[in-house]
Write a structure and sequence with these properties.
alpha/beta, binds uridine 5'-triphosphate, 20% strand, single chain, Spore Coat Polysaccharide Biosynthesis Protein SpsA, Chain A, 410 residues
Length: 410
């Protein structure tokens, strides 16, 4: 949003961020205009949140939510799959790839999806995902719309890479890119960092804003035009996951739920995955850092761990439900991060340790807004190979091993 210098000064004064204009006079006319535009378009109401973080994330009463487990799925696989295939063939199901994250833990400046995990051949993360979706395309004998969310930081590189690789055989007509919003990044006192003399530091605003961003991009019109009723949103980094899995889609439809979440049994009660549950009687997810000992020890009516199932960031949402909840605001998560910034003398510093906060909305909080959600168990070794780090847990190494186990040549 374009604003005048006077309006920018007024806004910055209101939020105690006057330092943002420190270098204004040194900027070119275009640089000045860009900075004013960024100031005008930035949500500064959120900045104060880092000072009262505890209140932001107060939780309701947590109780168990039973998952549909493997034996029940196996017993109904044929019927669920038939229902799912029918919906996919009718064009009612689409996929949403959440690829706007920075992937900082992987330590590459490129978008995470362009990471080559192959050894004897090239095998990119994006390629693995497309291959997985293609299996369903072949099974259903129809193309499936694939929406790809990027951010200001990786949009161009993502589009260029996928275009150059001809979408790894996917039909370009069915691929739609959209960009998520950015949020400002601040120091521990809530002061916005500058990443350039004419640019405030910002980062993607989390994976929770995807449907709002699709609306902003005009893609919800396309969804209506095409008669899409279900969106399967999934993370970029799980190279084994099934996307638009007909069995999962069919189970969610047959159980008359407006959302579904793929889950795996946790390896240990404190494993770093969010646990599916009810919160004040509605579906919800407790993040691993909110898991108390009491919750980890709790048992359900059958004497099994009550919060045993963890989400793998593969969710199915009914479009009507998304449109109902889209106006509700999501809780804001304040996350400590390493934020590159200009120091006192205007030099760029890339910190080695966290030096401030980013603000994010998370997709898992959308589950709490839905009326019903089916936790759908999947076999971990077949569907969960997240790549967060280079080595160790949830890494390139561990994902390679799992891909090998599943017969993928590396
Ligand atoms: P992560 O929570 O792993 O975050 O994202 P990240 O930014 O990719 O990685 P780190 O923490 O910096 O190492 C989980 C999924 O959500 C997407 C990511 O691309 C990934 O698919 N995501 C995350 C977004 O699309 N936008 C965001 O703002 C954040």
């Amino acid at each position: 949003m374009s604003i005048t210098l006077a309006q920018a000064k007024e806004k910055l004064k209101k939020y105690g961020q006057e330092h943002v204009l420190k270098y204004y006079d040194e900027l070119s006319a275009a640089g000045q205009a860009a900075l004013l535009e960024q100031i005008g378009g930035s949500d500064m109401d959120i900045l104060d949140s880092c000072k009262h973080q505890e209140e932001l994330l107060e939780r309701g009463v947590i109780t168990p939510l039973a998952a549909m487990e493997l034996p029940e799925i196996e017993a109904n696989r044929e019927s669920f799959t038939a229902t799912g295939i029918e919906a996919i063939r009718a064009g009612k199901v689409a996929a949403v790839l959440l690829a706007g994250g920075m992937g900082t833990r992987l330590g590459s400046d490129d978008p995470k999806g362009v990471y080559n995990i192959g050894i004897t051949r090239e095998l990119y993360i994006f390629q693995c995902l497309v291959n997985n979706l293609m299996e369903v395309v072949r099974q259903a004998d129809t193309w499936i719309h694939l929406f790809v969310m990027t951010s200001d930081k990786n949009h161009e590189a993502t589009v260029k890479f996928l275009t150059e690789h001809e979408f790894f055989g996917y039909s370009a007509e069915y691929v739609h890119f959209f960009q998520q919003k950015m949020a400002l990044a601040v120091d521990y006192d809530g002061k916005v960092y500058m990443e350039e003399k004419g640019k405030m530091a910002s980062s993607p605003n989390g994976n929770g804003g995807w449907f709002v961003s699709m609306e902003d991009a005009g893609l919800v019109d396309l969804i209506h035009r095409e008669g899409i009723e279900w969106l399967n949103a999934f993370a970029v980094d799980n190279v084994l996951q099934r996307i638009c899995d007909p069995c999962f889609v069919g189970a969610t439809i047959q159980r008359e739920c407006v959302a579904g979440a793929k889950v795996v049994g946790k390896v240990t009660p404190d494993e770093k995955v969010g646990a599916i549950c009810l919160e004040d009687g509605r579906p919800s997810i407790v993040e691993y850092y909110d898991m108390t000992q009491e919750l980890m020890d709790a048992k359900d009516a059958q004497g099994k761990p009550a919060y045993h199932f963890g989400v793998i960031l593969n969710y199915l949402f009914n479009v009507e439900e998304l449109e109902r909840i889209v106006s509700q605001s999501l809780p804001l998560h304040v996350v400590e991060k390493k934020i590159p910034y200009l120091n006192e003398v205007g030099e760029l510093v890339k910190p080695q340790a966290p030096n401030g906060y980013k603000f994010e909305n998370l997709i898992l909080d959308m589950i709490h807004q839905t009326g019903s959600c089916l936790p759908f168990e999947v076999v971990r070794e077949k569907e969960f190979a997240p790549i967060k780090n280079k080595t160790g847990i949830d890494s390139v190494e561990s994902a390679r091993e799992l891909l090998r186990q599943n017969g993928v040549t590396l």
